Amino acid sequence: MTRLAGPLDTLLDRTIAPGYTRLGLAVRRRLPTWPGELPRLDGRTVLVTGPTSGIGEAAATDLAVLGARVLLLARNPDKAAATQARIQRAVTAADASRTADVAVVRCDISSLASVREAVDQIEEQDEHVDVLVHNAGAMPGERTVTDEGFELAFATNVLGPFLLTALLEDRLKADAPSRVITVSSGGMYAQKLDADDLQHEDRSYSGVSVYARNKRAQVVLGELWAERLRGTGVVIHTMHPGWADTPGVEDALPGFQKLTKRVLRTPAEGADTIVWLAAATAPLSTTGGFWQDRRERPTHYAPWTREAQADRAKLWRTCAELAGVDAPVPA
Ligand SMILES: NC(=O)c1ccc[n+]([C@@H]2O[C@H](COP(=O)([O-])OP(=O)(O)OC[C@H]3O[C@@H](n4cnc5c(N)ncnc54)[C@H](OP(=O)(O)O)[C@@H]3O)[C@@H](O)[C@H]2O)c1
């Protein structure tokens, strides 16, 4: 069985539909090659963006159950308070002698000003950052511009997270070994990086395509951050959760959600690889990879999706310039 486990896992990956559903995870979990290790996280601090529903809340909950102090970076205080209460209940339900160590930091990730304020608060509170999880995501149906003048999907999925990593870079280095995990999407396989039109000004707007291009940009930026931080003890991972039944999917893709509901993963199943990347020992010895179901995956299947070096550099330069970050393109 061990000999067949690798090829079977790869087959699930290439056939997409079975691999992305709950079936794929159920099969992989039974393989002898499944890396089951999930150490406790007592004494560690984990920041999670977009923790108020779906995959982010599931990840934050599981990380708190493992003993981590969890900072919920959320834009909506009422939703954040409700999530905080649910996490408290989950931690106590798992172990009646424990209470969760969970706090809220206000952060609208699509706003550079809000990201700066959130980091100010984190610094004032002298928080450690052992793990940063970029999970917040958006797929607007039409082109929308933020108060700061950025296209909303790009601001939420790419620019805000870029600034957050940059502002926490020194903290992450000081707290090394530390990890940055970005929740991308399998949808990025269908898109090539378009560094010339990152804010989608030059063509008709398709929410699904824009989202997938943002998710491609997240993977490229993950590789570049990994180069910049190589040797510092800060590792960078991007991952995709497969297809999970979340409020986000129901809202943005109601037809898909209805059609596939019975085979969609639960939010916790979607969050499984985030939690493993945050807690396990193995992910500390590698950086810059793209993961699904606790295994590194290719970043391209179709040759036409491969981007030129010049476009990778342009993506980085544009993000740094727009975010006001002084950081040369990683070599
Ligand atoms: N579900 C899937 O099958 C799937 C597949 C591939 C990738 N993903 C990725 O997984 C991540 C989580 O998605 P989900 O399916 O769990 O969706 P979800 O239930 O809609 O959760 C999205 C989270 O992001 C937050 N958020 C959105 N915009 C924000 C902003 N400007 N500032 C701060 N927080 C913001 C939301 O906060 P509010 O509660 O305030 O709205 C919510 O907490 C996303 O990055 C998504 O692209 C999901």
TrEMBL record:
Record SUPFAM superfamilies: NAD(P)-binding Rossmann-fold domains (SSF51735)
Pfam families per record: adh_short
Protein name, entry field: Unannotated protein
Organism in which the protein naturally occurs: freshwater metagenome
